[in-house]
Amino acid sequence: MRTSIAALLLILALAVIGLGACGGAAVPATSGGQADPVAGEALFKLECASCHSVEAGVDLTGPSLAGIGAQNEQSLREDIVNPDAQVTAGFSKGIMPNSFGKQLTSQQINDLIAYLLALK
């Protein structure tokens, strides 16, 4: 557990440094902070990529998220914190953990949404 937290912190720190180095702009978040799509991508790779592909037509345990950036921010937020509210056809309720709303901070959720919005 400590190793996972340390790895996440290292990834997030490197993502912040990388964003600053490339001059990328952060996206405003609804909670008042700045959402960081680079940190969101790192979090996606750590928490989501084992079940969700970002390649079109590549379904894993969960559906492909290719093109998900066409959804609005509120819809993505609901999908993360309440995944059984609307389930993609061909998938069953209860597959995606419903703990992300409690497990992730609001900043992490904002960062993840910023990354997902870029997947158009």
Q: Could you walk me through the main structural features you see in this protein, from its secondary elements to its overall organization?
A:
The chain is mainly α and 120 residues long. The chain has a single domain, classed as Orthogonal Bundle (Cytochrome Bc1 Complex, Chain D, domain 2). The chain is 48% helix and 3% strand. It contains 5 helices and 2 strands; from the N terminus they run αββαααα. Strand 1 (27-28) and strand 2 (34-35) form a beta hairpin. Helix 2 (37-47) packs across helix 5 (106-117). The termini are far apart.
What's the CATH architecture?
Answer: Orthogonal Bundle
Structural shape: globular
**What is the string of helix and strand elements?**
HEEHHHH
Number of beta strands: 2
Beta-sheet strand percentage?
under 5%
Strand order of the biggest β-sheet: 1-2
As for the number of domains, it is 1
Figure out the total of helices. 5
CATH C-level: Mainly Alpha
Largest sheet: 2 strands, antiparallel
**CATH superfamily, called what?**
Cytochrome c-like domain
State the low-pLDDT regions, or none: 1-31
Distance between the termini: 34 Å
- What is the SS-derived class? mainly alpha
Radius of gyration: 14 Å
CATH topology: Cytochrome Bc1 Complex, Chain D, domain 2
Helix content estimate? 40-55%
Mean pLDDT: 82
List the helices and strands and how they pair.
Blueprint: H1 2-22, E1 27-28, E2 34-35, H2 37-47, H3 73-81, H4 100-103, H5 106-117
Antiparallel strand pairs: 1-2
Helix pairs in contact: 1-2, 2-5, 3-5
